[in-house]
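Our platform keeps sequence and structure together, in a single record for each protein. Such a record has a labelled line for the sequence and another for the backbone structure tokens. The tokens are whole numbers drawn from a learned vocabulary of local backbone shapes. The remainder of this section carries one protein's record, kept here as part of the documentation:
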Amino acid sequence: MIFLLSTLLLLQRVTCTLPPGHGKPLGEHNELKTPAAEEDYTKLTSQYFYERYVRTRTPVILRGLAKTFPAFDLWTDQYLVDNFGDLEVRLEAKTEKQSYTPVGEAGLGRASISEFFRRYKTDNMYCVSEVPGPMYKDLQLPAIMNCGSMKNSLVEMNLWINSGGAKSIIHKDAHNQLNCLLAGSKDWIFINNTYNDWIYQAEEIDGDQGGFSLVNPDKVNYITFPLFDKIPWEYATVHAGDCLYLPPRYYHRVKSTDRNFAVSFLFGTQSEFQMGPECGTPTTSSPLTEVPIQWKYPGTGMMSMGNSDPAGIKEWFIDMFLEMTDGDATDNVPMEDYLEFVIEDEGVIPYMKELFHKLLIEDRVFGDSEFVDRNLFDLVPEEVWREITVAQSYDPSNDPNNEYFHITKDDVVYLLKDATYFGAVNSDQFLEAYSRLGGSLRVARELFAKLTTDGTTVSWYDIRDKDEVFDVYGQVHDRGDEEMFTRNEEVRRIAEAELTQSIVEGKSEL
């Protein structure tokens, strides 16, 4: 009874001391808000845009800039189906970080543009994809980016399409980005990453680059996350035809209530670009087909969405070298010691250790020199940095065979054993059974073709003893997710325990 009374008194005290925004959605959680900056893009030079916003890492809304793209007038649902219907896009659920992944005919999390537009208004699916290369013809690199080293810094082009009701978590991205809305509207909330210590960042593989907050933006909890109430924030509503510049690693939350299309220009992770004297006068835009882009997606096959910038990977290897030499760029270290230092770094997770061991030690992509000096990194060919980046950045959701990571071998075999229990099944029956696993039509057809012996049916005799066919299922891509989940739960537990203790001691500042 005493314990119960103490608990009730503690809960009452917690309730009395919580800020008024407790339990409310982001945007109503506190009053520390200011509107984001806005500029008339027609009056900006590349130099001004760079000096005022990119270099200082300040978000800005550029009203009407996207209206200069041919896509603004051309990209209706029907136009995209008629001109690009056979190209494939990547799918996610409308709410970010949901465990559900939409299934398309082309694969788990993959659909043709035709299928996507046939289903997106009724199904829980959101196109979050790289822009297929053939669609570049309708886009332009804006004049404010088309100068100096900035015009050659594009990393990738992303495409966002949904029918409304989509929302993200509070997260940050690695790159500078210019997000341009071609249809609909989006509500943005921004939080400067200088408040990183108060935002309760979850641990992720890309560490300081990307990441997300553990705070639920639909219902902010100040019991678990008390410091979040201290953070000022900016807001903006972006309408069709507007573009938003968002600096790298700047926390944000995005919501859309209506049908919307957007494209995003991702360029570099740095804040310093080389801008010549010509950048101080008005420049013109360039067709995107004429602009160099680090990672391009042809419209089918493997995507590279979220791949790191090879220049950033190179800088990391250089930083590791400088850490060994105490910052002395003129020094050198034994190659064997350097490679061991890189592979055993605490930030290198298990699958990357295996990757680095293969590339650096077995394949010796850095050459056969006995020593490493600063100049070595500049002598390593660009294609080697790309090779390291591609391997390091691999994400199953970019793979058209993504479902091999989500469906196990036993699941497939047991399901098909059950389906053929009373006899052989035809193609339609086989496809229907496979769909119950959450698999795609394309992979089901490929599996049927590998199993059938008569071309029209599959029986248990066709399935048994076919390990080589089913071994592709149940693949594991160990990015350390389980360990990170445990550590993120520990962040929640510690935050809540510290607050409870501060209330017991009468020290809470809430």
The first helix runs from residue 2 to 17. The two ends are 28 Å apart (CA to CA). Residues 1-14, 502-510 have pLDDT under 50 and may be disordered. The chain is about 30% helix and 20% strand.
